[in-house]
Structures are given as C-alpha cells and as structure tokens.
Amino acid sequence: QQQVKQSPQSLIVQKGGISIINCAYENTAFDYFPWYQQFPGKGPALLIAIRPDVSEKKEGRFTISFNKSAKQFSLHIMDSQPGDSATYFCAAAEGTYKYIFGTGTRLKVLA
Amino acid sequence: KAGVTQTPRYLIKTRGQQVTLSCSPISGHRSVSWYQQTPGQGLQFLFEYFSETQRNKGNFPGRFSGRQFSNSRSEMNVSTLELGDSALYLCASSSLRDGRNEQFFGPGTRLTVL
Fold first, then answer.
1. Contact across the interface for A44 and B94, Cβ inside 8 Å
2. Mutation test of the interface with chain B: which of A32, A96, A103, choosing the one with the most B Cβ atoms within 10 A?
3. Residue-wise pLDDT tens digits, A56-78
4. Nearest Cα to B26, choosing from B12, B6, B10, B42?
C-alpha cells in the first residue's frame, strides 16, 4: 500500500513532442505529490508538485494532472527538448517528511 | 544560498568494513532525510532526522544508522558492509513551504562495496 507505481520505465520522444509519465498510488493518506528530475551524477531536483485538492498544475512546459478518484497522477512535458533528457521520479508524501518514490522514468528527447 | 553538500562524493570499501557518510543541509533547514538509490529499487527511504531526533525510519536493517548534530549536519553509518550496499546515497534537507516539507537533494555519495 506504500508503493508508488511509475510507468513507463523509459521513454523516447522527438524534439517538440509531448512526454507523458504516469504514476499510481494506493494509500489515500498521501497528500503531496512532487516530481523530481535527475541528471547523471546529480541528485534529484524538485520540478513541480501538486496537492490532491487541485486537478492540474502548470509551470512553464511542465504540467501535473491529478485524478484523485483513480489515484493516479501524471507529468506532461510539452515541447520536449533534448535538455529535458533525464530520469524523472514521481513521489508521494504522507505527512510532512516521509516520501515514497516511484522507480523512475528515463526520458530521452531526440534532436 | 549554498545547496546540500555531501562528502565524500565517491567511496570504495570492501565487504565487512564500515562507512560513514556526511551531509550538510541548506542553512536554516532542520530536517534531513537519507535515501538509498539503486538501479533496481529506485530511491528508498532510510531515515529522517529533525532537531537531532530520528522521526521516521525506513525498512533497512540495523546496520544502517544515522545521527544529526546540533548544527543540523547529519551522518549515516553502515556497518558490516555487504555487496548489496553498493548504491548512491542521497541526503535531502527540507524546509516548510505552504505547510509542506519541500525536499532538496544533495549530489549523493557513490558507495562501491567490493
């Protein structure tokens, strides 16, 4: 019940395309859903986050869509660029400090 | 503001040895969490410290331990190293934003156990 399932494991997108990464959870006590971006040799960096009281949040080319009833949330990267090539992790938090991470999606954007 | 720093960045040890990793959080952050990252398991939560107290612990054996000092710096220790402990160990410090702990990660310590 503490798991966060992330898919796909890897994704290849053409430059300018839309990248979509999905996550699903079981624990309804989760109340914070961040997405992290990680480049090789670096730690994960917070990209965007959402709370379950909203269905969508947009920051620049990055959008989180949240479906509370389905217990699913997704990251959409619009106009994907080669510089977006990285590993993306979704996470879910219960309370203020315990994060459960998805297994990651390796995104490659072709020039 | 300086980010989260972790030392050392790389470490090679042999089975049976012990290791201590260090993390300096962002100035003003009082919460420090540790994660183990491996290709097969992703990021797994080890433990979290706040004001020198461990508030939560993940499902790791007792060989993994940590502590936090009064200046919020944290260390984690792994005793009797096993080959499977080879991983990237990440530290994250947190600040409250909109009532939510926002975690900022360091670059990690790459531990290789031979």
1. no
2. A96
3. 999 999 999 999 999 999 999 99
4. B6
> Residue B92 carries which side chain, given as an amino acid letter?
A
- Residue A96 confidence class, pLDDT cut points 50, 70, 90: low
Residue A54 with chain B: CB contacts under 8 Å: none
A101 and B100 within 8 Å at the Cβ level: the answer is no
Residue B26 has pLDDT above 90, yes or no: yes
Exposure of A42 in the CB half-sphere (CA atoms within 13 A): 13
Task: Say whether B84 sits in a helix, a strand or coil.
Answer: helix
DSSP A38-92: E-TTS--EEEEEE-TT-SEEEETTEEEEEETTTTEEEEEESS--GGG-EEEEEEE
Torsion angle of C-alpha atoms A10, A15, A17, A22, degrees rounded to 10: 20
Measured in angstroms, the CA of B4 and the nearest CA of chain A are apart by 10
Q: What is the DSSP letter of B6?
A: E
What the block records as the tokens of A82 is 């080669």
DSSP character string of B13-62: E-TT--EEEEEEPPTT--EEEEEEEETTTEEEEEEEEETTEEEEE-S--T
Contacts of A97 in chain B (CB under 8 A): 31, 33, 48, 50, 55-56, 94, 101
The DSSP symbol for A107 reads E
